[in-house]
Amino acid sequence: MNAYKAYKACAPIAWSPNLYITLVRGIPGTRKLHRRTLEALRLRKCNRTVMRWNTPTVRGMLQQVKRLVAIETEEMYNARKRKEANHCALRPPLVINHLPAPANNSS
Q1: pTM, whole model, 2 decimals?
Q2: Range of the domain at 53
C-alpha cells in the first residue's frame, strides 16, 4: 500500500465538514441505481471533483458507489492540489556548455 492510500485509510472522514468526491471510474456499464446516484451527486465525467457537505445522506450515497469514486477530506484535497501545482511549476532552464573546459596550468 502506498503512502497516499495509507493516509486515506486512516483519515477520519466522519469528522470532516466537507467531502471532495472524484469520479475515477467510468459510468457506462454500471447499474442504473448507481448512475442515478452519481447524477444526484452531480458527477457526470471521469476525473471531475465535486464538494459536498458531510451528511449521513451523502455518506450513504457514497457507500453505494464507493467503487466508482475517490473520497477526500478538505486537507487531503488541498494537499493533492498543492502537490500537483508544484509538479507543474516552471523550473529554471538547464544550461549546458559544450565547449571544452579551460586548462588550468599553475606551473
Answers
A1: 0.62
A2: 3-76
